[in-house]
Amino acid sequence: MIKLQLTTKNIPLKDDVKRIVREKLFKLDKFLSKIPPDLVKAVILLRKRTHRSEDDIYVTQMAVYVPKKILHAHQDGYNLEESLNEAVDDIANQLKKYKEKKV
Fold first, then answer.
1. Residue 1: pLDDT band by 50, 70, 90 thresholds?
2. Considering only CA atoms, which of 91, 38, 94, 95 is closest in space to residue 60?
3. Is the Cβ–Cβ distance between 69 and 98 less than 8 Å?
4. Residue 103: is its pLDDT beyond 60?
5. pLDDT tens for residues 78-100?
6. What is the pTM of this model?
7. CATH topology for 3-102?
8. Burial, 95: exposed, middle or buried (Cβ in 10 Å; 0-12, 13-18, 19+)?
9. In whole angstroms, how large is the CA radius of gyration of the chain?
10. CB neighbours of 92 closer than 8 A, spacing ≥ 6?
């Protein structure tokens, strides 16, 4: 499993938030199978941006550290899971390219 540093802003860091993040990161494990686990780290910031309008925007900022590369994703959404899903998908696409170049 990926080492994780998780931070939130304007969102309570409850167990269900941690569980959702871990479940989403599990999707990345298949791309990282040949990399020693101690060389991979994910740093995630989840925050809620409140606007003057009624809609809140959830922001996921993610950096995944792999050997010789740092992958970044920044996604906004109307709910936390949506922004997290899009960020993980973005990182997954970057990991595919990283893996292809390494082989």
1. confident
2. 91
3. yes
4. no
5. 999 999 999 999 999 999 999 88
6. 0.89
7. Double Stranded RNA Binding Domain (3.30.160)
8. buried
9. 14
10. 27, 28, 31
Entry field: residues in the chain: 103
Q: Which pLDDT tens digit goes with each residue over 57-74?
A: 999 999 999 999 999 999
In sequence order, what are the beta bridge partners of 46? 8, 60
> Tokens in use for 17?
């938030």
**CA nearest neighbour of 61 among 50, 46, 78:** 46
Kindly state the tokens that stand for 68.
């010789």
SS3 state at 25? helix
Give the CA dihedral 81, 98, 63, 3, nearest 10 degrees.
Answer: 90
Q: DSSP readout, 83-101?
A: HHHHHHHHHHHHHHHHHHH
Tracing tokens 């170049």 back to the chain, one arrives at: 101
